[in-house]
Design goal:
The chain has helices at 8-11, 17-26, 38-50, 61-71, 73-120, 124-137, 142-176, 185-190. With 191 residues, it is mostly helical. It starts with 7 loop residues before the first helix and ends with a helix.
Amino acid sequence: NETEPVRPSRLKRTLDGDLDAIVLKCLEKERDRRYQSAREFSDDIDRYLKGWPVQARRASLGYKTLKWVRRNRSTAAIAAAAVIVAGTAGAALWSSWKQEDDARRADVRRHLADSQAKLERREFAEAAEAASRARHLAPQDVRAIELFQEARRLEEEDRRVARARQLIEEGHGELEHGRFAGRDDAAARTR
């Protein structure tokens, strides 16, 4: 007869996939695809009874894993619990790190905005200090570095301008009191 054999699982619903595969392997049309001996058949039945993967089925990773889990329920449960605990701990640590990082970034943005505002108000020393705080929190932040350098440069420039104003005022005072009277212009300029 050339028709395919009826699957045993259709005959009796209590058969599972492994028994189904074992019986079908016994009924294979091609001799080299059947069990080669009664011993091979017996070994496969023993594997089925012990919960091991049977030779009659293609042994995929999922199939082998499922068989291992069924044989080692407590170990599998402990392993699953460990994975869940590790995953939960990892997620909690990541969340904590993310919150800290977000807070640090917010502090950097606040210090940079403060520094920028102080630069605009020509409060150069305070602007440099605010930019320095941002640089401390984010040493690689290019904007913090640029603002710090700009504030320091403007602070130095402001000192020079203040010194120039001071010298001009002193010069005006000297002129008002007539201290340059009688000197030639060259001597007055060098003073």
